[in-house]
Every structure is written in structure tokens, then in C-alpha cells.
Amino acid sequence: MKTKGVFDCFLLSMVFCFVFFQNSVHGRILSVSKPHPDNAAAFARWLVSQSSWGSLNTISSDMGGAPFGNVVSFSDGLPDKGHGIPYFYLTTLDPTASNALKDQRSSFTISEYPIGTCGKTDPENPTCAKITLTGKLQVLNGNSNETEFAQTALFTKHPEMKDWPKDHNFQFFKLEIEDIFMINWFGGPKPLTVDQYLHAKMNKLSVIL
Amino acid sequence: MKTKGVFDCFLLSMVFCFVFFQNSVHGRILSVSKPHPDNAAAFARWLVSQSSWGSLNTISSDMGGAPFGNVVSFSDGLPDKGHGIPYFYLTTLDPTASNALKDQRSSFTISEYPIGTCGKTDPENPTCAKITLTGKLQVLNGNSNETEFAQTALFTKHPEMKDWPKDHNFQFFKLEIEDIFMINWFGGPKPLTVDQYLHAKMNKLSVIL
Asked: Mean pLDDT across the stretch B6-10?
């Protein structure tokens, strides 16, 4: 009986730890189940929606036109209600925003690995998904509805942004997607158009994890 | 007494979970302590050495010269014995390697966030470090000492690589670093030359975590 009590306590602790660590390390608990890899559009939208950061890549005229990747946070909407378009909160004190104002060509790269759903699979293994959205990085007009959407999307998923220094002149940017490269299983990149991606039918909400 | 026993069990479980999750989510347990942010060279080497993947960015001639980021695994040497130069195991079935064979200009972007040492800090917050190494992505000669070093470095940190399909013609690549952009605290990018980076004096081994 005593052994059973200790075992129960251990099990309870495991569950507590599992939920706690998922929450603390990855920023939130998964609430939408991962689509089947064959459902490329839904999978891509899940990957973007569940991620909170990635590498935003621009052309650096200061470095001979080299591709310059930079770690940034992003949001495509409210949690589990993303629209698929990544929005960013950037300052021209950072090279990425100033590069984009000179040359809009850019891409945004996300890995499934930090979400925590790849297990022990290597981040370069094709079954640990990765997506690169290529297009134009555009600054948003200060007073548009889209700017308001971007602000709500970003400040909800990244609450500390609203307190970032006003004198750094942060502005909202969006990636106007023109091409999608996604690998989420064996067999090479999944054929996926921008239209299919933007109009994907998402899975319903599922239980926590 | 009984309460104390349950509490002890709970504490033990917490410790077990903490070590287990650090190990399973991030691939390994940190064994070198994080240098002070002011020690830019040592910090940069720590960040590269403790990371296992990042975004490798090349120029895509197929997409009008757009910067194309791609998630890849890498290694700069044996665990905690890295030399600072990132090596990759890439196939030209993937755009990144074929882009690099046409145009070597590239960068490699790493975030501290997935290491797990940023806590609840946002990935774009300057105190959650990020580094971009810019330079030339070069394929290694098949039989050189450097190829042997790259193979050992990669296959040790990424054991599944040695079983990846032979008919995919994976080759070893290195990033010949020409510029380093690192933010690891407030105040903008840290001034850091490639020479300072490559000859950084690293911290001694510390206890687990």
C-alpha cells in the first residue's frame, strides 16, 4: 500500500512536470493536434501557428549582398487562430529591418524542433518538419486595420513587446508570402501553393497535448 | 513523517524530471557554464558549441536571388571541444547545398532559446542571445584531415547521420566565417572579430547544469 502511494505520487509528479516543462520551455501548451504530414496545407499552418520565433533572412547590402539571417519573434494571429501570415515587430536599429527597407526580398525559416514534437529525432531529419516562407518583407502602414491585427497578434503571443523601448522606433512588418518550401516527411519538399496554405482547413481544438 | 516522505518523493521526482526533460528536449545536458555577456568571444563560442541546429541561409538563384533559409544540423567539434567553425552534412537534393555550389555567400543563424537558458525571456529580447555567422559555404575535399574532423564532429553530435541514405550523396560543408553578428545583452551587437572568436579562451568544465 505504501509502495502504491509512493508510485502514485511519482506518477502525479511526472504529469505535473510534463505539463510544467512544456509550458515553461516552449512558452505555451499545444492545443491543436498536429495534422498528418500528407495534409501539407494544414501541417504548414499548424507549424507556423504553434511556433513563436524563427530566422528572418534578408539581403545585406553592407556585406556584399550576402543573405543575412536573424532570430526574431513573430505571430500569425491569436493563439490557435492564426491566419498563416507572419507579422514581426522590428526596429531599424537592427540590420534586418533596414535591409528590408532597401530590398524586400526575404524568407522566414521555422523548425518544428523547438515546439518539442520531434522527440529524439535529429532537427535535420525530414520527419522533424521545417518550413521556409519566401517573399517580400513589408513595413505596415501605421494606422491600418492590418497594423492593428499585427499588434494584437504579436502582443498577445509576446506580451513583453508592448514594453519595449519607445525610442527604438519599432514598426510592424509582414511577410508577403510568394513561395513555400516545407519538408515534413520523407520524399522531398511537399508541393504546396500559397493559396492552398492560406485557405487550409485546420483541425479542431483537441485536448491539451 | 508520512508527509515528509511524500514531499521527498516529490522533490526527487522534480529533479529526475528536470534532468530528463533538459536531456530529451534539448538533446544533451549543458556541461560548460554560460560565459558572462561581456566576454563576447567566449559567449559566442559557448552559444555555437552548445547548439545543435540553426538556419543556414544561401542565395536562391531559382527565386530571383532571394535569401533562402533552411533548418540544418551542425557541429563545430566534439561536445564541449568545439573549434568554432560550423560543419554541415548536406545533400544537393536540398536547395541549400545546390545554392552554395553556385554562390558561396551564406550565413548561419543560431538562437540561445532552444538551449533552454533564456527562461521566460522572449526569443527576440536582446538578453536571449542570437548569433549570425556570415561567410562562404564551402564543400570539403573528400579525403582531407578537415573532412575527417567534420565527420567525427557531426556524427558524434548527430549519431543518426551515419545511417542516412548513401544514394543521397551527402557531403561535408563548412562555413568559412568572415563576419560575426551577435546580440547577447542590451546595447546592440557585440564588437567581435573572427580572430577573437576563433581564439577565444573558454570556461572550464562545470557541473551538470
From this structure: 48
Model confidence band, residue A202 (pLDDT cutoffs 50, 70, 90) = confident
Whole-model pTM? 0.85
Q: Put the strands of the sheet holding A87-90 in their side by side order.
A: A66-73, A53-60, A105-111, A130-139, A171-183, A87-90
Task: Please write the tens of the pLDDT for every residue from A51-93.
Answer: 999 999 999 999 999 999 999 999 999 999 999 999 999 999 9
The DSSP symbol for B164 reads S
Chain B nearest C-alpha distance from A17 (Å):
6
pLDDT tens across A17-41, in order? 444 444 333 444 456 899 999 999 9
Q: Which residues of B touch A69 (CB under 8 A)?
A: 55, 57, 67, 69, 107-109, 132
Contact A19, B21 (CB under 8 A): no
Name the grid cell of B98: 545546390
Supply the mean pLDDT for chain A.
88
Of A56, A72, A137, A153, residue with least CA distance to A162: A153
Provide the 10 A C-beta neighbour count for residue A171. 17
CA distance B161 to chain A (A): 8
The domain that contains A116 carries what CATH number? Answer: 2.30.110.10
Q: Is residue B4 in a domain?
A: no
Take residue B199 and report the three cell numbers written for it. 581564439
CA angle B133, B137, B143 (to 5 degrees): 125
In a domain, A130, yes or no: yes
Assembly ipTM: 0.85
Helix (H) or strand (E) holding A6: helix A2-26
Evaluate whether residue A208 is within a structural domain: no
Q: Which residue range forms the structural domain that includes residue A127?
A: 31-199
